[in-house]
Amino acid sequence: MSVKLLDNKAFYGFRVRRTVAGKLYQEYFSLKTGGSRLEGKKKKEIEKEALARDVVLEAQQKRYLDETKEDRCFKSDGTVRGISYLLKTEKSGNLTPIFQVGVASKVENKTVCTSFSLNAHGSDDAWNRAVEAYAKHKTIRKNTKLYQRLLKAMPNVS
Length: 158
What we know:
This protein starts with a strand and ends in a 6-residue tail after the last helix. It has 158 residues and is of the alpha+beta class. It is built from 5 helices and 8 strands, in the order βββββααβββααα. 15% of the residues are buried.
C-alpha cells in the first residue's frame, strides 16, 4: 500500500504515492480544515478517499506492468535483462563461466541472485536452469510464449 499518514509542521494528512508507466503520482489528502485537525468520522472519510485513490492507481500500475512484461524482460540487443554471462574468478584463480541471475523477485519481495556453472551443467542446461529461476521469480509460466522466447535468447558463450 502506498498511503501514508503525514504529521509534521508542513502537512497533516494522507499522501498517496505510486509510479505508473514511469510517471510518479503523488497526491495529498488534508486532515485540516480551518486550521484545526479533523478527527473521528471526518478523518475516516478522508482516509477512505485516499485508499480509494490508491486502489485506482494500483490497478493502473498492475495493468501497465502486465502489458509491458515482455518488453521489460529483454534488453535492446535481445539478451535477457537480469541474466548475465560472466567469468567468475575462483579462489584458486581459475575462471569459471557462469550464468548469473539477478532479479527483483515478485515471489520473495527482495532481490535474488543465483548462478549456474557452465562447467557443472553444460551451457544449455545452465541456461535452462537460469531461465527457470528467472521465470520463477518474475512469475512467468513455463507454458507461455514469453518463456519460450527467454529460452531462445541464450547468449553466445563460445
